[in-house]
What we know:
Layout: E1 4-15, E2 18-31, E3 36-40, H1 47-54, E4 62-67, H2 75-78, E5 81-84, H3 96-106, H4 113-122, H5 138-150, E6 156-160, H6 168-183, E7 187-191, H7 195-201, E8 204-209, E9 212-218, H8 219-222, E10 228-233, H9 239-244, E11 248-249, E12 255-259, H10 263-275, E13 280-285, H11 290-298
Helix pairs in contact: 3-4, 4-5
Bound molecules: adenosine-5'-triphosphate.
Protein name: ABC transporter ATP-binding protein
GO molecular function: ATP binding
Domain ABC transporter: 4-235
Amino acid sequence: MPAIEVIGLRKTYRRAFRPGHEALRGVDLSVPEGSAFGLIGPNGAGKTTFIKSILGIVQPTGGTVRVLGGSPEDPRIRARIGYLPERLHLPGSWMAPTFLATVAGLKGLKPDKDANLRLLERVGLADALGRRIGGYSKGMRQRLGLAAALLGNPALLILDEPTDGIDPLGRVEVRRILQEEVQQGTTLFLNSHLLAETERLCDRVAILGEGKVLREGRLEELSRASSRWAVRFAPGADAGALAGVGFTAGGAEGLYHVEAADVAGLNAALDKARATGALLVELKRDGQDLEAVLASAMGVAA
Ligand SMILES: Nc1ncnc2c1ncn2[C@@H]1O[C@H](COP(=O)(O)OP(=O)(O)OP(=O)(O)O)[C@@H](O)[C@H]1O
């Protein structure tokens, strides 16, 4: 059973005296249980609308949504979802432990002060327990939001820009927490503008553009390189002889490209290159990163 299953999802926002705006135009998406799934796409693609639809916050205009095998409007299903919204509204005059205890109560969890403190420590807020939330930095507010999302060990974590405002070292910490969650079997659904973040955390990715899924799949499949390899030879390599055995000069000093369908083909090509007197210095697959995958899905040059 997928953790999230969406079929033909549509959402049109109504506008006064004008035609409605179609934010989602028939989205089909299946998020496997236990996966770390990244949603990416340009501004206005419909990502937040999609997230709000699968949480039952936004009422879809059409299509079906099943989350953890049920309806997102079912309180029993909602209790198993941890959600970190894009814009967090936090009570400024409260302290973090009071806030967590209140959220835990709203989620129907048994009061557990120690567990809440452990959670605040886990997200790196141990030193800020006696401070009012209103004085927290943006990153601290995000960490508190993450702690609230983690309350009660949810089966599904839905995070909208979780590392927004968090400094680079803090991001490493947040990533570590999210990786631990996935290792423990939690399904992660992540919306982030930071493609490197998605690349590091997620095993599957969907690209949303103008309210439609443009591409979806395992990260390594989407970014899988062609059969092209980048090869660097030591200075003095004979470009003409290398061209004769299938190596095209790649612009930079000593850099060449070669096509090889498999490892045997690659080694055969390298043997031919060595036979010309070329000495291998470096070899790597010519891969596409997520930015290039996104750019090609959107039809723009990376
Ligand atoms: N409440 C609303 N009323 C009217 N239009 C809306 C509303 N919320 C979003 N939209 C419009 O729907 C489209 C999709 O917005 P959405 O916030 O889902 O995109 P997004 O991919 O999350 O964008 P971003 O990356 O900028 O956060 C946009 O054109 C937006 O202006």
